[in-house]
């Protein structure tokens, strides 16, 4: 089968499309014929060799956590899913023709594989950081870098929970943020004062890693009210860096519920082939994403 792999840490050029042995579903796992794989910032951070608090990477390594596809193997002890089911979920080495998933759910009606591949890690991360930052209904949450996948999920989940969101993004994405229910403002010079004009900020999320931790602490009044998923230097300001996933099955169940009720939709900004994985990483790392990027297999 085809698989994207890297034998050394480095830039996008270390990614290679190789022939590899097919993985198989062990106990408690399923294997899918991958139809689409989500492209997440964690993918290129792992490729660069960044230490994110998860398990160590053994080289050569595959790439990718999220995927959607058709079940073609069911491991021992697995119930409630059959060969031929259309599922989306999280596993390992999902930039490939076949991948093993450790957490999955049936795809909601009307969702394409391309769309479904963009949800698993994004929704899990959004739910996790909102829980960790402790924002409550009636409060205001500031989201720095709000137009990407996680930001798109946070804005919609927050709206559903009665949380007001102030989102920062580039000028081209202001209307997009407003469409998702956020109070939108641009980053860049003067952004702190622009945020202050909208009133008190009770909690803040750094989703872009653009060097704004100090300002987020200033705006919220406490490092305990700030969580980052993108700035490894956050602990220097006593701010939590959140890099280890919580319950993916629970997040997938909530994603299915929200999508099915029309409360969550994350658009796919751009699709790539497996051979274009390096280009997908370059674009992801450049930021300014509106929604998600995915590989179509």
Automatic annotation (TrEMBL):
Subcellular location per the Swiss-Prot or TrEMBL entry: Cytoplasm
One Pfam family from the record: ADH_N
Segments forming domain Enoyl reductase (ER): 10-295
NADP among keywords: yes
PROSITE patterns in alphabetical order: QOR_ZETA_CRYSTAL (PS01162)
SUPFAM superfamilies given in the database record: GroES-like (SSF50129), NAD(P)-binding Rossmann-fold domains (SSF51735)
Gene3D superfamilies listed in its UniProt record: Medium-chain alcohol dehydrogenases, catalytic domain (3.90.180.10), NAD(P)-binding Rossmann-like Domain (3.40.50.720)
Family annotation (InterPro entries): ADH-like_N (IPR013154), ER (IPR020843), GroES-like_sf (IPR011032), NAD(P)-bd_dom_sf (IPR036291), Quin_OxRdtase/zeta-crystal_CS (IPR002364), Zinc-ADH_QOR/CCCR (IPR051603)
Top-level taxon of origin: Bacteria
SMART domains: PKS_ER
Statement: the UniProt record of this protein carries the keyword Cell division: no
Alphabetized UniProt keyword annotations: Cytoplasm, NADP, RNA-binding
Subunit organization: Homotetramer.
Protein name in UniProt: Oxidoreductase
């Amino acid at each position: 089968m085809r698989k994207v792999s890297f034998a050394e840490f480095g830039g996008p050029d270390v990614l290679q499309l190789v022939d590899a042995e097919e993985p198989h579903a062990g106990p408690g796992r399923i294997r899918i014929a991958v139809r689409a794989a989500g492209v997440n910032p964690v993918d290129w951070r792992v490729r660069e060799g960044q230490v994110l608090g998860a398990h160590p990477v053994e080289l050569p390594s595959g790439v990718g956590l999220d995927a959607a596809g058709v079940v073609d193997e069911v491991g021992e002890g697995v119930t409630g899913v059959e060969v031929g089911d259309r599922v989306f979920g999280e596993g390992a080495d999902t930039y490939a023709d076949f991948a093993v998933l450790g957490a999955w759910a049936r795809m909601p009606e009307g969702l394409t594989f391309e769309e479904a591949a963009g949800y698993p890690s994004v929704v899990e991360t959004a739910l996790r950081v909102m829980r960790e930052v402790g924002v409550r209904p009636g409060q205001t949450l500031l989201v720095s870098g709000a137009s990407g996948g996680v930001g798109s999920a946070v804005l919609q989940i927050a709206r559903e929970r009665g949380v007001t969101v102030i989102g920062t993004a580039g000028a081209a994405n202001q209307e997009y943020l407003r469409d998702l229910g956020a109070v939108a403002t641009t980053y860049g010079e003067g952004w702190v004062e622009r945020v202050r004009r909208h009133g008190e900020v009770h909690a803040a999320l750094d989703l872009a890693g653009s060097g704004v931790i100090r300002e987020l602490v200033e705006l919220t009044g406490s490092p305990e009210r700030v969580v980052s998923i993108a700035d490894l230097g956050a602990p220097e300001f006593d701010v939590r860096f959140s890099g280890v996933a919580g319950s993916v099955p629970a997040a997938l169940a909530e994603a299915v519920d929200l999508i099915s009720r029309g409360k969550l939709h994350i658009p796919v900004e751009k699709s790539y082939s497996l051979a274009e994985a390096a280009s997908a990483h370059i674009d992801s790392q450049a930021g300014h994403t509106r929604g998600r990027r995915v590989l179509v297999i």
